[in-house]
Amino acid sequence: MPEARFDEVIHAPVRLRICGLLRRVDGMDFGVLRDTLSVTDATLSKHLKTLTDAGYVTLKKSASLARSDARRMTWVGLTADGRSVFDAHILALREIAGSVE
Q: In Å, how far are 32, 33, 77, 91 from 51, measured between CA atoms?
């Protein structure tokens, strides 16, 4: 189990939600993530840049078999470090809330 550690980068509400959604999956399409969070492309891109710069998130582009045009899909996923830091942050929040067992 990781040691509880509060992380300022992850703590911002949208970034916390991004990490929470990504924690459960190997990767998620940018559009699905945007729609799930009900944010704009620009807002999501800004937060993903912050998480990517911190080394917590990875972005991968791939061709879409469902599209006839040349546009590519962007897949978003947590890095191993991102998962570890997110888990430690959640533990720190539980400690703050007094709910660590």
A: 18, 14, 10, 19
Q: What percent of the chain has pLDDT over 70?
A: 89
Q: Are 89 and 11 in contact (CB under 8 A)?
A: yes
Domains of the chain with bracketed CATH = 8-97 (1.10.10.10)
Relative to beta strand 57-63, strand 28-29 is unpaired
Separation between Cα atoms, residue 63 and residue 29, nearest integer Å = 12
* pLDDT tens per residue across span 52-96: 999 999 999 887 666 565 567 899 999 999 999 999 999 999 999
Rounded-to-integer distance, Cα 9 and Cα 69, Å? 36
* Rounded Cα distance, 75 and 87, in Å: 21
